[in-house]
Amino acid sequence: MTLESIPLDGTNGVRIEILERSDNTLVIRWVEPGRCHYGEQRWRRRSAHTSGTCAVTRRKIRRGDAVFKPAERPAPSNASAMICAEVFCELAEA
């Protein structure tokens, strides 16, 4: 099973679709009703600079955890969103 084109239900009604994936980069379709829509948004793997919540699993993220975050400039509306990197390990095992 490949991870490309997998739809995920995020928090607060966000719809996330993984279009492309590598070890350090994701291309995501992000749809947040009434707020923003990104058809092909590039996200990069990095260490979390702050604590937060995973946009997919609602798990707590601690500073230093491996996450994916939007990498575009200028900062998009969802710039503070994070997805736990381990979400993709779990999908691959399913």
UniProtKB/TrEMBL annotation:
A Pfam family annotated for this UniProt entry: DUF3331
Top-rank taxon: Bacteria
Name of the protein described by the UniProt record: DUF3331 domain-containing protein
Source species: Paraburkholderia haematera
